[in-house]
Every structure is written in structure tokens, then in C-alpha cells.
UniProtKB/TrEMBL annotation:
GO molecular function: transferase activity
Ranges where the Peptidase C45 hydrolase domain occurs: 117-336
Name of the featured protein: Acyl-coenzyme A:6-aminopenicillanic acid acyl-transferase
Keywords recorded for this protein, A-Z: Transferase
UniProt lineage: Bacteria, Bacillati, Actinomycetota, Actinomycetes, Propionibacteriales
Cited NCBIfam families: C45_proenzyme (NF040521)
Record's signal peptide: none
Pfam family, one: AAT
Family annotation (Gene3D superfamilies): Penicillin V Acylase, Chain A
Amino acid sequence: MSITRLPEVSGLEWTLISGSRAEAMTDLGRAHADQIAAWRALPSWAGLVDRATGPSRPVFEAVVASTRRLLPVESQELDWLAAGAGVPAEELWALNLRGDLGRDGTGCSDLCAADDQGLCMGHNEDGDREVAPLVRLVSLRIDGDPAMTVVWYPGMLPANSFVTTSAGLSFGMDHVPVRTPLTGGAGRHLVARHAQRQSTGQAARAALTEVPCAGGFAFDVADGPGGRADIIENAAGRQACQRADAGALRHTNHLRMVDGTRPGLAVAPDDRWLAESRTRVARLRAVSPRVGSATDVLAALRSEGVLNRSEDLYTFATTVVDPVADRIWVQTQGPAWCGVLSAFATGERITA
């Protein structure tokens, strides 16, 4: 068991935690108890807890129970995280099920491409600007799992944003709307965590299509060893997958493969977040007509109209991976940092 503070990357603080699953997840909460408390003091946290434990409590409790049944390991991890932070587990469940209890705003953009020459994937992690000072990097070396590094919100299971692992897999997650959750599904953050713990791309893709999300995520998966990239939508028990073998794939925050007009998924035509997501993906398409390199991906994600700077939709970090070249780029406010991807995934900072 060990906790190491690593040098910052593009202004993001970085912590490496090693040990057994129970030790690592408990220490993750304990080492960041102050940051979790800082978010807990914001009105947005109380709003999420009130939403889950108020009129939505029957749905909340049903999704928690279903998640515990479908994903017991990841559920226990969340409980250990709460125990380490000294926060009631119910509150962390409310936080982590924010996208599994009905409509939940918007955020994040993804771009990936793969061909015979290479593979690249990029992700913009977006959210409420008020939590920007809390977002950081965390690396976990858990006995029996691939090592992993995540762009982390203190209090979230380390899974819902951008993740890269020592198995050569990288993941970007985009919120997609679900109006009526699948109460027999699993929390989307825990589905993500389950996939990220897999040792092969095939196993990760299977996890994302076989375990139904109660809410909705689009998963951008770059499989370095397999030489492929896929976007998988998993929304209230409905899944669809597209492989990036005929050009670049782009995704923002509305369903594009699963039929988003179906009952339980459809949002109002004048929904402002739906309009924003459609506008953003159109802009992303316009600035990335051809994707020939990771630097093309980075430039597209940092372009005006894709990079978000509003109070309720703010880009915390852009991450781009090129598994063939073994490179990763991370950018927040200043210049992008470029490092060795395989080292970064295991919690080692090597500048390229």
C-alpha cells in the first residue's frame, strides 16, 4: 500500500495509489477527503443528493440494488471510496448515478480514427466550471487489475471521464440523455469502471455491450493492441456500436446510433442541451474533415465552438492518445504536455 504525489501535468495535480482493491479505493477517498468535502459544500452536490433521495428515491434505490447485483466489485469499490472519505455511501451513490436517474444536462466531446497507418483518439472532459479547481489526475495500481490513470472528479468512481490503462486501452465517456432510466440496469459510471478493468479490447467492448446502463453513456474506446477504435452507445438497455474503419468518428451528447426518438429516450425538440450538442458535433465535423494524426485531433478538440468555456459547460482537460507512437497529450489552460502513454497509464510522468 502506498500513496505518491507526482509532478503536475498541464496544471493537474496527480496522485498514484497502489495496493489491494480495498486499500487503494479506501486510500483514494482518504487522501482526497478535503477535495471531496469541498465539492460536498457546493449547492450542486446537495442538489444531486436531494434529487436521488427525494421523489426519485424508489428509482434510485432500484438502480443501486440492480447495480450491486450486476457489478458487485465496482459497487464495493464505491463503498470503500465513501468510507475512506468519511462520507455517507448513499451520497456518493447519488453523485455517481447523476446520469442514471433521468435527464442530466450535457458535456464532453470525442473524436477517434483508425486505419492501416495508425490509431488516435481524443476526449474533451466538460462539466460545471465550479468544480474545475478540484479535477485532477489519479493513477491506480490495484493488485490483479491493469494499472490505470484517470482524469478524476473527487467523489466519483475513477471511471467516468478519460481513462487509459496498462492493457493498451483508452476510454472517453460522453453523457447521452435518458429520460426514463432502466431500473434493472447498472449505474453508467460502474459499467465504465467494469470495462476499464478488462485486460483486452475484446473483453472491454463485451462489457460495454453486455451490461446495460440504467442511464446513458457513449463510450469511445481506443484499443492499441487490437489496432481499432469504436464508439459504443449504451442507453437504458439499448446498445449500438460503430467501428472507426471508414473514417473518423465524432460524438458529443446526443444519441446517434441508438434511436433517440424511442420512448424513454426522446427529449423535447427544443431542448437547449440537445441543440447545443448538435451544434457542437457539427462544428467538430467541420474542423476535422480529415484526421491524419493525433495533432489533428488535438487541434479539432481545442477549436472554437468545440472547446467549452461557459459556467455550466466548461472543458477541464483535453486528452489525446496515439497508441502506435506511444504518446499522450494533456491540455488544460496552457500549452499541451506530451508524454509517453504507456508510462502515463501506470502513473509515471515521462515527457516525450
